[in-house]
Specification:
The complex is a heterodimer of chains A (285) and B (295). Chain A is an all-alpha fold and 285 residues long. Chain A folds into 2 domains: 12-62, no CATH class; 66-283, Orthogonal Bundle (MetI-like fold). Chain A is globular. Chain A is built from 12 helices and no strands. Chain B is an all-alpha fold and 295 residues long. A two-stranded antiparallel ribbon of chain B has the order 1-2. The chains are: A mainly alpha (285), B mainly alpha (295). Chains A and B meet through helix 1, helix 3, helix 4, helix 5 and helix 6 of A and helix 2, helix 5, helix 6, helix 7 and helix 8 of B.
């Protein structure tokens, strides 16, 4: 039955692929509905009342909601706040985790395995378990309502996963090059900085995307650390303006779209590294 | 400490920043919650030592805590396995060379990168009883089963919330399976084809067993993800109605920052910590689970 009469016309393999394509296309459309809805509602004309279908049917397209949001809410300030927390945490995570991952992959030192297991343990911790103590630590250090009050914990919590990614990447390098470099008088730091880091961009890219998304989207620590409106990152903005825009989904969904755009841009620019980064260890066995 | 020892252990200098952050923001907080869980403390006034009273209260007389545990169990099973099943099917199709497969991968992964805060607000409008997407669709097409009190009915609210989570994270499972499938050698797959194994046979007997490490990683990450679910529930239902969608993190937040019971919140945090560490260490030590699917 499998490949008899259809040969030359359409093989079963072809039909299977066509069916798979149709299935995936329909599912992808359904998958996108909430995201399309976010965009559509944000473009709804302000005079449209009582939106139906959650706002999926709009009478015309208007950018008025975006104008309203920029006029009534300090969106730019919140955007700057998000950047001021996210960018330093990404840079710190890359530097701190790559140093540690290099040591764990290549150097021998006191209690190396114990340190590695302790760092791995961090990956098993639900962040909400730490929210009370981190709130109190920040209070004691006077870091509540300051960017540093989020940058430091985000870095601390992001470093372990970055170490796991980078360590397996570093471990896959050929040792011959490093041995030659040592004979030429290169220090371990030189090997890390001049030999390994320049060729590690696929793994570093994964760390950057991952940390950017986690810092940008982090919610619970931001919620307890940032109390003054002026310092709140974008992720808290829907709560800040939920009263003001309660009856007006248009401006609220414009805010949601503005929060989402940066992560989609970063992901789109970096996504080709994602799959290769996830498998970087596996491919090189 | 001699100079020699320092030279032999110079790895410690490379590790120092990571270690320092770990001690301040992970190790110290762990000791902190164990200690604070023994006190009756509002976070402001003098704390009163009460031994294990918080734990006794939690396990004998706290309906919300019980509901959080029940919901965590629902959440674990109803997110992880559907996500893996659908994620694998998508990954299998999207590595078979159909047109636009990269575009499809981006589409399915997209919800995973969007803040759960944003998604919570969008899904409120999808679930809304009046003017909501599903309810209006039901009224307009006559598919009346679509008109449900999705997040207002305590009986079904948790499942509606879980559904959003499955939608958000299926793309992540897909991406992990895509990476796993690309790591398999083509020879294994094509050898099976020449032998005449049908597609389903090939998947069940050859592909799925070879992806064991991906299944294990997804279960490990799924359990941890479940145990730290906060933002989606907080935005979609606030843990309600009447604690019906309460998860341990939302309960900790409510106790600590709404009801000002820092001691009790710490005790709940200790329980969450023990469950998370216990489940993860079991998986890593006994099942051999890993956090990434690389070597």
């Amino acid at each position: 039955m499998r490949r008899s009469v259809f040969i030359g016309v359409k093989s079963p393999r072809h039909i299977g692929k066509t069916l798979a394509f149709v299935f995936v296309s329909i599912l992808a459309l359904i998958w996108l509905v909430p995201i399309i809805m976010m965009l559509v509602v944000s473009l709804m004309p302000p005079d449209q009342r009582a939106p139906r279908f959650g706002g999926m049917l709009i009478k015309g397209v208007s950018l008025q909601n975006y104008v309203t949001v920029f006029a009534d809410a300090e969106i730019i300030q919140h955007f700057v706040n998000s950047m001021a927390v996210t960018v330093p945490s990404v840079i710190l995570v890359v530097l701190i985790s790559s140093l540690a991952a290099f040591a764990l992959a290549r150097l021998k030192f006191f209690a190396r395995d114990i340190w590695f297991y302790l760092l791995i343990m961090t990956l098993m911790l639900p962040i909400p378990t730490l929210v009370v103590p981190i709130f109190q630590i920040n209070k004691a250090l006077g870091l509540n309502d300051s960017y540093l009050g989020l940058i430091l914990p985000y870095t601390a919590l992001g470093v372990p996963f970055a170490i796991v990614i980078l360590r397996s990447f570093f471990a896959g390098f050929l040792r011959e090059i490093e041995e030659a470099a040592i004979l030429d008088g290169c220090t371990p730091f030189g090997i890390y900085w001049r030999i390994m880091m320049p060729v590690s961009w696929p793994a570093v890219a994964v760390v950057i995307i991952w940390q950017f998304m986690t810092s940008w989207n982090e919610f619970i620590l931001a919620l307890v650390t940032m109390n003054s409106v002026e310092v709140k990152p974008l992720t808290l903005v829907p709560l800040v303006y939920s009263g003001q825009f309660m009856m007006r989904p248009g401006p609220m969904f414009a805010i949601l779209t503005l929060i989402t755009l940066p992560v989609i841009v970063v992901y789109y620019l970096m996504q080709r590294f994602m799959v290769s980064g996830l498998t970087s260890g596996a491919v090189r066995g | 400490m001699t100079r020699r020892w320092l030279i032999d252990n110079q790895g410690l200098f490379f590790m120092a920043p990571a270690m320092l952050l770990f001690v301040v923001f992970v190790l110290y907080p762990i000791f902190y919650i164990f200690n604070a869980s023994m006190y009756d403390w509002d976070g402001i006034n003098q704390a009163v030592y009460i031994g294990i009273q918080n734990y006794i209260e939690m396990f004998t007389n706290d309906r919300s805590f019980g509901l959080s545990i029940r919901n965590s169990i629902y959440w674990t099973f109803l997110t992880i396995f559907p996500q893996m099943f659908l994620g694998f099917i998508l990954a299998y199709i999207l590595t078979s060379g159909i047109p636009l497969q990269n575009v499809f991968r981006i589409i399915f992964f997209m919800p995973a990168i969007i803040s759960p805060v944003v998604l919570g607000i969008i899904w409120q409008r999808i679930y809304a009883p009046f003017g909501g997407l599903l309810a209006d669709l039901g009224r307009e097409t006559g598919a009346l089963f679509l008109i449900q009190p999705y997040i207002a009915d305590p009986k079904i609210a948790i499942f509606s919330t879980i559904f959003v989570n499955v939608w958000q994270w299926t793309g992540f499972s897909m991406l992990m399976y895509v990476a796993g499938l690309q790591g398999l050698s083509q020879e294994v797959l094509s050898a099976a084809e020449v032998d005449g194994a049908g597609t389903l046979q090939r998947i069940i007997h050859i592909v799925l067993p070879l992806l064991r490490h991906v299944h294990l990683t997804l279960i490990l990450l799924g359990v941890i993800g479940t145990l730290q679910t906060f933002a989606l529930v907080f935005m979609l239902t606030k843990g309600g109605p009447n604690h019906a969608t309460e998860m341990l993190p939302t309960y900790i937040f409510q106790k600590a920052f709404t009801l000002q019971s820092m001691g009790y919140a710490s005790a709940v945090a200790v329980v969450l910590l023990v469950i998370a560490l216990g489940a993860s260490i079991f998986q890593v030590r006994v099942l051999g689970s890993r956090f990434t699917i690389g070597n």
